[in-house]
Amino acid sequence: MTDINALSQELFAQLDAAQDEASVEQLRVNALGKKGSVSELLKGMGAMSPEERQTFGPLVNGLKQQLSDAIAEKKEALAQAALDARLLAERIDVTLPVRPEQRGRIHPIMQVFEEVQTIFADMGFAIAEGPDVEDDFHNFTALNFPPKHPARDMHDTFFFEEKEDGSRMLLRTHTSPVQVRTMLSQKPPIRIVAPGRTYRCDSDQTHTPMFHQIEGLVIEDGVHMGHLKGVLMDFMRAFFEIDDVDVRFRPHHFPFTEPSAEMDVRCDRSGGALKIGTGTDWLEILGCGMVHPNVLRACGIDPTQYQGFAFGMGIDRLAMLKYGIPDLRDMFAADVRWLKHYGFEPTVQPNLATGLS
Ligand code: DAH
């Protein structure tokens, strides 16, 4: 009897002291395993008299049951504590700033693309895309550039080698071919912007052979020039984050719009820096107009039923203006010092609620 009490006390003391699942398991084997101390007591009962067995049996079985329950409970508690500790250790506070400080930067052009798309998406425009390598039909013919028309030469096009049938693929000179692709594949009402790379054989302070544009196209019944102006003015205010952006529309010619205009933004170039909103200089940033009936017809849209407006803006120019970057060519010089200065935090996404930039 005393044996059982002593053993019971010892086993429960050991269980209390056990700090981890492995030592609890060891205790279980030592007590309840085949050769365990409790099992040995049970085995010893064979040699007892029936009276002894009657008092001894329930005591040993009781101990066995209590001990195995207590062991299961302790294991459960230890597993829970281990899980709690792990969850606490692996917790991530997503509101903390990134550590160590991020060294990569978002290029101002990508930043501006994001900003511009955010604004137009908010106005209900969808995003459309087209290929950089285009054919003559989408880049010129469907946009009402007649074959051999001098306007084609003004685009300083990069052509690929002639194919056997005499046609040549080209690097798109503007994002306007995405208008054509969209009108050919969708039915009005259409409201898209198409961001992307564009290419022309040209290089100086405000021109690079590869540059970026975003094209806008709205085709709906009853759309007019007033809507075009309203959309562009709203865009300018949102983009530059100022209420008074001084712009001017100049009459212009594009084969794919009639009437056509160019829009300039007032800026100041003195002292090597570029400032927007003041000064006596103007920077041309977009072309626009009402979609020419020939373009609508070429894309299978009836010009007597639908009208539309379109615009194309230089993203690089917008970036220069907004972020005061004086020379366009620096944008593509791949100089990390430049990027560190003009670039943006990769973890901050432009949005209209907390500010674009
Ligand atoms: N595609 C023209 C360019 O690159 C820009 C442009 C002008 C696009 C007028 C348009 C537009 O959609 O309506 O120079």
TrEMBL record:
Q: Which reaction does it catalyse?
A: tRNA(Phe) + L-phenylalanine + ATP = L-phenylalanyl-tRNA(Phe) + AMP + diphosphate + H(+)
Question: What CDD domains does its record include?
Answer: PheRS_alpha_core
Occurrences of domain Aminoacyl-transfer RNA synthetases class-II family profile (ranges): 112-346
Q: Which residues form a coiled coil?
A: none
Give one GO biological process term. phenylalanyl-tRNA aminoacylation
GO CC terms of this entry: cytoplasm
* Compartmental location: Cytoplasm
| InterPro entries listed in its UniProt record | aa-tRNA-synth_II (IPR006195), aa-tRNA-synth_II/BPL/LPL (IPR045864), Phe-tRNA-synth_IIc_asu (IPR004529), Phe-tRNA_ligase_II_N (IPR004188), Phe_tRNA_ligase_alpha1_bac (IPR022911), Phenylalanyl-tRNA_Synthase (IPR002319), tRNA-bd_arm (IPR010978)
Q: Which of the seven top EC classes does this enzyme belong to?
A: ligase
Question: Any idea which GO molecular function terms this record carries?
Answer: ATP binding; magnesium ion binding; phenylalanine-tRNA ligase activity; tRNA binding
Q: Tell me which domain of life the UniProt entry assigns to the organism this sequence originates from.
A: Bacteria
What SUPFAM superfamilies does UniProt report for this protein, alphabetically? Class II aaRS and biotin synthetases, tRNA-binding arm
Question: So what EC number does this one have?
Answer: 6.1.1.20
The UniProt keywords, alphabetically, are:
Aminoacyl-tRNA synthetase, ATP-binding, Cytoplasm, Ligase, Magnesium, Metal-binding, Nucleotide-binding, Protein biosynthesis
Cofactor(s), names only, from the UniProt record? Mg(2+)
Cofactor: binding details: Binds 2 magnesium ions per tetramer.
Residues involved in Mg(2+) binding: 258
Q: Whom does it interact with, and what assembly results?
A: Tetramer of two alpha and two beta subunits.
Q: Which family does it belong to?
A: Belongs to the class-II aminoacyl-tRNA synthetase family. Phe-tRNA synthetase alpha subunit type 1 subfamily.
The protein here is known as Phenylalanine--tRNA ligase alpha subunit
